[in-house]
Amino acid sequence: MPLPELSAARVGLRAEAADWREAIRAVGTLLTETGATEEGYTQRMIDVVDEFGAYVVIAPGLALAHARPGTDVHQDALAVVTLAAPVRFGHPHNDPVSIVLGLAVTTSESHVGWVAEIANVFNEESAIPRLAAATSVDEVRAVFGLTENEEPA
Question: What is the CATH number of the domain that holds 106?
Answer without folding.
Answer: 3.40.930.10
